[in-house]
Amino acid sequence: MFTSPAAPPRRRPLPEGTGRRVLVAAVASLVAEILIVGTGAAVRLTGSGLGCPTWPRCTADSFTTTPEMGVHGVIEFGNRLLTFALVAVAVLTLAAVWRMRKRRRDLWWPALVQLLSIPAQAVLGGITVWTGLNPWTVAAHLLISLALVVVMTVFLHRVRTGPGERVLAVPAPLAALGVAIAPVTAVVVLLGILTTGSGPHAGDAASARNGLDATVLVGVHETSAWVLFALTAALVVWSTARRLPLQRPATLLLTVEALQIAVGVTQVALDWNAGVVIVHVFLAACLTAAAANVVVHLRRPVADVFEERPERIEA
Predict the structure, then answer these.
(1) Does the N terminus or the C terminus of the chain have fewer Cβ atoms within 10 A?
(2) pLDDT band at 209 (very low <50, low <70, confident <90, very high)
(3) DSSP secondary structure string for all residues of 259-272
(4) Contact 232, 254 (CB under 8 A)
(5) Which residues are bridge partners to 300 per DSSP?
(6) What is the DSSP string of 35-61?
(7) 166 phi and psi angles, rounded to 5 deg
């Protein structure tokens, strides 16, 4: 069943027992996961991927950068330091949901996954350094970071909406279109990662590329981005015409896609300008979060529906 067309609901209070502390932790977690993607891109696209040539130390004799390593060492070491900020956010998030870990498993597990992912990502980052920035380990490192963006997007949504059985918030055909957004977004992002891995920015002048044809990948990636844009535009038009609660998430996603397409076209026109590519990678994380946000808004708690307008439930 689904809720019949109605004006988007007013912002509802947080579910009982959640608290603003948990909400702040959820927002901080999502923001941190997106930012770490952006800073990682900055390391690679400034040629600082091997600014610290070993791991876990920065040099064979020091955990910190040295003056001889120059700006590349500072950038790479700075990114490593950001891991500690991410650890702090993850620990605080887990602490915020600790007391509700038994009754709110939907919050406990994402918070735990975020914390446990940090040492795993650190090890993968170390392997990436040891292999001289192998493009495939770099890609895997980024994919895991984007997967964590999805996890924390779901986490934030659950904090705001609460637990319990859920029903479709939109008609089934529109829900199917919304669900299709997820795999298409995944294809767009994956093609983008492969395209970047075939381009000129290896993270270090001596590092290899993935060997794929960048010209072909640019064309395929751009085509997939326009397909995603068309699907999202249809989602916006449909949800707006029916005044469905999916309107705002879909519009946000369409806006991010428009920005991403514009930046992507610009980066190719400017011959892979590093600064523009950094923005493109950062927007990929934003795109991932916005697409996940659309999917989670396809359903809503049964209790929430009955509270607002019980007579407007249709089978």
Answers:
(1) C
(2) confident
(3) HHHHHHHHHHHTTS
(4) yes
(5) 167
(6) HHHHHHHHHHHTT-TTSS-SSSSSSSS
(7) -125, 150
Q: Note the pLDDT tens digit of each residue in 243-268.
A: 998 999 999 999 999 999 999 999 88
CB 306 within 8 A of CB 167: no
Residue written as token pair 């696209």: 45
Q: What's the confidence (pLDDT) of residue 42?
A: 86
CA distances, 159 to each of 109, 187, 259, 284, 296 (Å)? 13, 28, 28, 24, 12
Q: How far apart are CA 288 and CA 209, in angstroms?
A: 25
pTM here is: 0.89
Which distant-in-sequence residues (6+ apart) come within 8 Å of 167 by Cβ? 1, 2, 3, 299, 300, 302, 305, 313
Q: How far is CA 286 from CA 109, 147, 207, in A?
A: 23, 12, 28
What is the three-class DSSP state of 216?
helix
CA angle at residue 7 from 5 to 11, to 5 degrees? 130
- Taking the C-alpha atoms of residue 123 and residue 129, their distance in angstroms, rounded to an integer, is 10
Q: How many Cβ atoms sit within 10 Å of the Cβ of residue 213?
A: 11
Whether residue 109 has pLDDT greater than 90: yes
Q: Which residues contact 145 (CB under 8 A, 6 or more apart)?
A: 33, 36, 37, 40, 121, 285
